Amino acid sequence: MTGLEALQSVQFVSTRDKRLAVLDATEWETLIEWLETLEDTYVAKQAFAELRAAGDRGRAGWLEWDSVVGELS
């Protein structure tokens, strides 16, 4: 199921003065994963645009992998 399909599967319930959206938990998780993917895609596009504008990794402020790999463990 895609995020869009999860959104389309929403059912609405009215109670008192509120209208609530109801989703299956699996559909909710699919929706969250879809939103996280959209966010990751945006961040990657932004980073590559900055890299392109800077001209190279050093001027863009990107670090060499070998210089930081030890800090990750």
Task: Describe what you observe in this structure.
- This protein has 73 residues and is an alpha+beta fold.
- The chain has one domain (3-64).
- 60% of the residues lie in helices and 14% in strands.
- It contains four helices and two strands.
- A two-stranded antiparallel ribbon has the order 1-2.
- The two termini are 35 Å apart.
Characteristic key phrases:
single chain; 73 residues; alpha+beta; two-stranded antiparallel sheet; 60% helix; 14% strand; elongated
Outline the fold blueprint.
Elements: H1 3-8, E1 11-15, E2 18-22, H2 25-54, H3 57-60, H4 65-68
Antiparallel strand pairs: 1-2
- The rough form would be described as elongated
Q: Compute the number of structural domains.
A: 1
- Strand fraction: 5-15%
Structural class: alpha+beta
Count the E strands: 2
Helical segment count: 4
Give helix % range: 55-70%
First and last CA, distance: 35 Å
Order of helices and strands: HEEHHH
Mean pLDDT across the residues is: 91
For the largest beta sheet, what order do the strands appear in spatially? 1-2
Largest sheet: 2 strands, antiparallel
Rg over CA atoms, rounded to whole Å, is 20 Å
**Residue windows where pLDDT falls under 50 for at least 5 positions:** none
Put the structure in a nutshell:
The protein is built from 4 helices and 2 strands, in the order H-E-E-H-H-H. The protein is an alpha+beta fold and 73 residues long.
